[in-house]
Fold this sequence. Notes:
Elements: H1 4-36, E1 40-43, E2 49-53, E3 59-64, H2 73-102, H3 108-121
Antiparallel strand pairs: 1-2, 2-3
Amino acid sequence: MFDGRDFEAAERMIDDWQADIEARAARARELSTRLSRLSARVRSQDELVTVTVGSAGDLTGLELDERIRRRPAAETARLIMATLQAARERLTADVAEVTAQTVGADSATGRAVIASYAGRWGARDV
């Protein structure tokens, strides 16, 4: 039925399979750790607004230059929102880079992570 060589080959195959699973799990843990530490900071072109977003794209910092007082409130609001979007897009690009470095951007996990971030706020050209 089975000889010793078949069992040895099966054991090697199982060992290889287990090692691959453990390596993928380690890369996924590294990805999770690195993503949790990400943030992005963007300054508007006119340097009146600076926005920082955390790893989930949430607003964690907002700095307004004193010159912003000379602008209409609606214009200031639009500038803040545009800068926030730019920070989220930078974060998404950083996520794509970290994902590529850890699990691979073309892996199923990598594609899902990148799509998740891009889909949150409609990031372009990741």
